[in-house]
Amino acid sequence: MKYVVKILVALTVIIFAGLVAQAQEDMEGSKDHPLLTRMRDFYISNYEEYDYDKASFYDDKETEYVIEGRKYVISYQLKDETKSPGNLNIVKNYENAIQKIGGTILSKSDDYTYMKVVKGGAETWICLWVQWDGGAYELTIVERKALEQQIVADPKAMGDDIMAQGHVAVYGIYFDTDKADIKPESEPTLKAIAQMLKNNPSLKVYVVGHSDSSGKLDYNMDLSAKRADAVVKALVSKYGIDATRLKAKGVGPLCPVESNKTEDGKAKNRRVELVEM
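^ thats the sequence. predicted structure below, dont judge the formating
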């Protein structure tokens, strides 16, 4: 009987040890991001990947950047019976790795480090969170890209809204971060605006740039005006619209359609609006 008990105890220990070992293996289906390896003696405890999502990143002036694209959230946990490398060690390792490949450190605090890498025209934004004792850390990574546009602006609907309400909000015009350069994926929306104007040859409009409330007011006012002007120039130079029918204005965050307290609200406030003269 004693031998049976010993065998059962031994089997229990083996099974328990196997479960512990299995628990310390990478989560099924998980992987390191191609740009970054992991710290020694850590395993992936949680892994999330989204084809298109968003996350917030911050620079040293606390300016918020809401970046959209392929998103990864990778959580790392220190294996049992191993010594923590320490919070600062983890942070410095990632900072050095990012700088080595030409990236920049946007900002850092006691808990979070924000970084950015631009390679071959692609932007990768990285947030590193480290547990105070260095026993766990998490990477939130967004590979910036434009949403594949599945809904195209309708020229007739835009014209009907302007005639009925005197204005129409237009989404689908994209700009580089902190710039007035129109991104190529804006073309379907610009074409729709041009077609709407051609369908209504007597219509003249203000092209009004709007922003969310992130950042300083003067900066947003100036940037929204420059973006509106870029839209006007594109409609005139690329789509043949008479310049006398268009006037660019920028109102920054002064005319929100929703609260800037949520990311969805901010996204709706960032828009171009066509207003009947």
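DSSP finds six helices and ten strands in the chain.
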